[in-house]
Amino acid sequence: MDAFSPTTPMTTKTLRRHAISIFRAALAAAQPADAVAHHLARRSFARFRNIYVIGAGKAGASMAQAAERVLGGRITAGLINVKDGHVARLRHIELNQCGHPVPDERGAAGSARIAQIAAAAGRDDLVICLVSGGASALLPLPAEGITLEEKQATTRLLLACGATIHEINAVRKHISRIKGGQLARLAAPARVESLLLSDVIGDDLDVIGSGPTAPDASTFAAAAAVLDRHAIRDRVPASVRNRIEQGVRGEIPETPKPADPLFARVRNTVVGGNGLALAAAARAARQLGYRTLILSSTIEGETREIARMHAAIAREIAVGGRPVRPPACIITGGETTVTIKGDGLGGRNQEFVLAAALEIAGLHRVVVFSAGTDGTDGPTDAAGAIADGGTLTRNREARRYLDRNDSYHYFEPLGDLVITGPTNTNVMDVRLILVASEK
Length: 439
Fold this sequence. Notes:
38% helix; single chain; 6-stranded mixed sheet; 6-stranded parallel sheet
């Protein structure tokens, strides 16, 4: 990592290089393997007849490696659904590659096998469930009467309408046989130990991966309210609409709630989240000589509005030296949403940077960066993007690209996409504002 000294000029090129270094530090801190291994190493497993390892998520491969490192041949069987390409070499646990963010048949088949493993566990057995970001889409086991295609159509509608992750999960849990505590219900009376890598604001147990082993705070009524709030009740498949309406009327059993006795033998533990990544980013920024402020790890809302807010902070620092004087690094986390109106290609991080680039145009020595810790941003091969005050001089059509939600094709020819490949972790996004002094 480059060290900054008063004699070293902080050019825009330097800021860009530093942004990448700071993000890499955040990624390193977000790796879940050590946390999983540390947690399991403190436990005694002698009393269990069989140990099963199941789960889903983009970080499933690295979490499974950690479990194998500790448990080795004590693992009776295991299966984890992971996103395509997010794999590792394992001996005792099988990885099943599936589609994400829209579920596919491979995910459904893997989820059915995961459900079978859980249901086969007995009172003297232990079920270890490894859950990380992406698990909701990677555990597609539709409720009776709903096809995978109908669940896919519902997921697309929810993603396109700008629903938050909490809203999406409320619906997903009530059209599923495995989410919202229902995987724990299948595993009962076995002991269940769930280790969770959080990709949601607030680290709510019932929201991470749609809470397959956690008591569900949401209801059929809440799921119906999401459909109404985004005006898609009449657009979702009839089977989905009918199930949710039946649930509201009490004709279908609810997902298990906190008072359910089955949770007496279930423990859910969060082993990592966005806060750890942001703290590591802040340490790296300080080492590089920046006055650093973690503004928030709970940023959510419409991407373009959040981008304008960040750009306003960048301008305030550059012009007035507030809330910190340059050289400054502002760090935020969380996860924004994009309401798709165009036919372009991109993701929330790329759209954030493009919207911010419009607002910081002309500012000297200011860089805006945003990327997903999972290495993928929307349906693209990029984690995010980077821009500076001079980006628009290289392509003045930014507004047109933004209107089409086509941030990927704006940044691709500029070489300003951030491409990491699969990172085997997922703790939401990291956004950076870097401002150099004028000296």
